Amino acid sequence: MSKLGKFFKGGGSSKSRAAPSPQEALARLRETEEMLGKKQEYLENRIQRELSLARKHGTQNKRAALQALKRKKRFEKQLTQIDGTLSTIEFQREALENSHTNTEVLKNMGYAAKAMKSVHDNMDLNKIDDLMQEITEQQDVAQEISEAFSQRVGFGDDFDEDELMAELEELEQEELNKKMTSIRLPNVPSSSLPAQPDRTPGRMQGLSSTVQRSRAASSRRAEEEEDDIKHLAAWAT
């Protein structure tokens, strides 16, 4: 059995001790890292010192120079061992930190699961279904009420459209008749016809011109009256 095994076996009483907490183990590992770091610094200084001594003695004092180089080699070997130990401790510390983190995460997730279970224990799926159905029914009622309010309210609007259109046409016809009666028609002459004109050529020519002008004026008035009647008829339709 190796000396290392005997060392751990000799401490068999530690089995009865309580396991340290992750925080305590991490603190111990950090202290060990700090101690080994200081040891590294010390060995590096010693190596530089022995190297300086070897250079100082050189060929003048070979024995002293060789002793300094031997000590330097021993310090370098110790420094290499410490580097390996620090790497192992650093890996162990990181693994312990990850394990502690995972433990805390698992613990918190367990608490959350218990809380969710406690909340769900107070819930009844049947009651939830009934509640959602009631909410849906109330929403439908609210929608119907909104639609009822938005509809046009008409009191006494149930009239016959045909009767209303007939009454409107009568009113338009009355208005057209009033406008027709307000139009002035030419008066019928009440005086006796003029005496038969002189049939002499000069007199006949003058009379013919006068008659033509009178007929043209009467024709224009008749056309104007016909246009007015057409406009009124178009407005009435």
UniProtKB/TrEMBL annotation:
Segments of this protein annotated with the region Disordered: 1-24, 175-237
Protein name (database record): Charged multivesicular body protein 4C
Gene3D superfamilies: 6.10.250.1710, ESAT-6-like (1.10.287.1060)
Gene: CHMP4C
PANTHER family reported for this sequence: CHARGED MULTIVESICULAR BODY PROTEIN (PTHR22761), CHARGED MULTIVESICULAR BODY PROTEIN 4C (PTHR22761:SF77)
Family note: Belongs to the SNF7 family.
Signal peptide span: none
UniProtKB keywords: Coiled coil, Cytoplasm, Endosome, Membrane, Protein transport, Transport
Organism per entry: Rhinolophus ferrumequinum (Greater horseshoe bat)
Broad class of where this protein is predominantly found: cytoplasm
Stretches with biased composition (Basic and acidic residues): 220-231
A cellular-component GO term for this protein: lysosomal membrane
Gene Ontology biological process terms from the UniProt entry: autophagosome maturation; late endosome to lysosome transport; late endosome to vacuole transport via multivesicular body sorting pathway; midbody abscission; mitotic cytokinesis checkpoint signaling; mitotic metaphase chromosome alignment; negative regulation of cytokinesis; nuclear membrane reassembly
Gene Ontology MF annotations: protein homodimerization activity
Annotated compartments: Cytoplasm, Cytosol; Late endosome membrane
